[in-house]
Predict the structure of PCD23 protein.
Amino acid sequence: ENFKPAQVLDSLKVPDNHLAINRKLHYSIAKDDDNVHFEIDSLTGDLYLSRELDYETASHFLLQVIIKDYNNPPQNSTVFLSIDVEDKNDHSPYFQDDFLVIGIEENVPVGTLVYTFNAKDGDGSFLNSKIQYSLEMSNRGENPFLIHPLYGTLTTASPPDREITRSVILTVFAEDQAVNLTDRRLDSLAVKIVILDINDNSPSFMSLPLSYVMEDVEVGFLVHHIIAKDPDEGRNGQVTYHILSGNENKAFVLDKITGLLTTARLLDREVQERYSLTVMALDDGSPALSATQVLTIIVLDVNDETPIFLKQLYETAVHENRDPGEFVIKVEAVDRDAGLNSLLQYEILPGADYEKFKMNSDSGELVTAASLDREAQEVFSIKGSSCHDLGSPSRSSTAQLCLTVLDENDHSPLFAKTQYQISVTEDLEEGSAILDLSASDEDDGLNGEVMYSLIDDTYGAFAIDTVTGSIVSTKALDRETKSRYTFRAVASDCSTHFPRSTTVMTVLIQDVNDNVPKFEQNYYKASVWEGQSPKTDIIQVFATDLDSGLNGETEYSILSGNENATFLIDSARGILAIHTGLDYENTSSYRFLVLLASDRGTPSLNSTATVLITVLDVNDNPPVFSSPEYHVHVKESIPIGSHVTEVSAKDCDAGTNAEITYAIISGNDRGHFCLDARTGSVNLTKTLDYEDTVKFSLIIQAT
C-alpha cells in the first residue's frame, strides 16, 4: 500500500496467437466504476499507480482492460485484471486514555486482577495489528505488578503495602508485531496506581516508658506526654489513649485524644514513690487494633530539711605570710534528708576579705587562698561560712568564723581607691593642683614612707609630687584637642621586693566657651518667587561650633537688613523663611540681609554671614491702558491702509510677564479695521462710508 504513484505496476502482453503480429493496439481501462487509483499506457499496456493506496480502505481491485485492434478488420478484446493490496504497518497502536488512575487495596493476594488494558491498532493484517503489552515502573525498586503480554491484564506480583508505597507510577506500552522489527510501532500510557489503606497496623508507642515528677506539683500538672503512632491513614490511623491498670487510687488522669497525663490529686513520695500504669493506645479502625505499654512514674523527693552546723562559732589562729593552701579549720554540718537533698556543699559567703580564704566544698576544710598580712588585718570575722544541700530548691545554714593572724613584717602601701575620676576646665592655669593622692602603709620606719610616681604618658599635661602625692597641671589644656587623660599613679615604699600599689587616674577636661560659631559660607545667595505664602522656606544656613554643651549650641537670628520684618529665621535649624508677602514690583532684591549665629555660652560668642535674596517675578499685574477711552475722528475718504490711531498699555511685571499683546474683541464685525498685536497701531482695511456708518466702537483687549 506504500507503492508510490507514477511507477509501473505491470505490463499487459497479448499472446501472438491471439492477435496478428505488428498490429496497432490501444489499451484502456473501463470507467464503469469510480476507481481512479490506476492508469494504463494506451500504446504499451504498462499499468501505473495514479493515487496512493490504503489497505485499510480498499484491499482488492478488479480492473476491466479493453484492448482495441485498429487494423482491418478492427477487433476488440477484454481482460479482467485482479489486484491485491498488501498491508503496510502504517498505524500505531493507541490507548483510549492519556492518563489513568487506578485504586487497589493493600495486602490483596498475588495475582489479583487490577485492570485490563485494551489498545487499538488501525492496520488491517494480523501481525501489523496484533498488540503485545509491557510495562515499566518510574521509580526504583521492585515492580509489584505484572502485565499479560497478549491480554493486557495487570495483576499483582506481590502483596502491596500502603505504608511502604502509597502509589506506583507505571508506563504501559502497546506494540504491534510487524514482521520487520524496525517497522514495529508502539504507544504508551501513564498509569498511577493508588494503594488504598486497610487497618493492618497496630499503634506503636513513641514516648518513653519512664517519667519523673516532683512530689509537690499542683493538681493538673503535666507528668508525661504519651505518644503512639499508627502508619495507617484516616480513621485507621487515629489513636486514642486509655489507662488499663495501675491508677486505682485515681492519682492521674489521661486525655484520650492528646495523650497528656496529668495529676488528679496531690502526690506524696513518702506514701508512694513509684506508679506502674498500663496504658493502651487504640486506633479507630474496624476491627480496631491496639498496643499497650507499662509506664513507670517515679515520684521525686522535695528538699524539706535544713542542714545544721555542729557549732555556730568556730575560732582559730593562722600565721601570716604562709603560702596559699595553709590549713585553717574544718567545719561540719548534718542534713537529715536523703540522696542529693542530704549531700552538703560548703562555701564562704561574699564579705569583707572573704577572697583570702578558700573552703573545700565537699569536706568543709578552710585553707588560705592568699598570703595574709597582719598589718592589713589582724582579725578576720567571717560571718558567712555556709553549707547548702544539693536539693532543688536548696536549703542552707550559716556559722561564724573568727580567725586571728599571727604577725610578720610584710605590709606594702595601699591607695584608698583603685581609681579616681576628676573634672577640670580647659582654662586651668599651668601649675594648678587638681588632686592630692594618698596611700597608707601600716609598716614602721622606712618601710612605711610612701613615694609617688606616674607610670603612663600624660602627654606632658600632668606631674605628681613624689612626697605629697599632689597631681598638678604642667601645660595649658585644650578640650578641643584632647578631652580625656587616663594614666596610672604608683605608691611604693623603700622595700624593693614588695609589689607596688597603683591607682588609675581619669581626668576629664570640661569645656570653656572659647570657640566662635562659624558659618559654612560668609555669603549666601537665594531666590524666591513673589507672592509666596508666609513661612515659606527660602534657604537653610549652617554654622558649627567646636565647643560642647551649651557652648556649642548655635542659635540663629537676623542682625540687620530686615527692617520691615520681611523675613524670619528658625533659631534652632537656621531655616530662613518669608514672614510677610514679597512684591517684585516693590522690591526685587534684598542685598544686605545680615544673619547672626550665636552660641549659648557665657559670655556668648557669635559670627555673621550676609544673604542676597533675589525676588522672582510672578505675573500678578494686568496690563493698564494709558487711557480708558480713545476718541478718533477720520474722514470717510481716507484710503485703505491709513493709520487711524494707536493704543498703548503698560504692565508692572518684568520680562515675558510684561510683554503685551493687543486684540480687537468686538465692534469690528465687518472688518473695517486691523490692529497690530505688538504695537497697538490701528489701520483701515475697508473703505468707510459716512452714510452707512457714522461711528465705530471698538473694544480692544491688552493681554
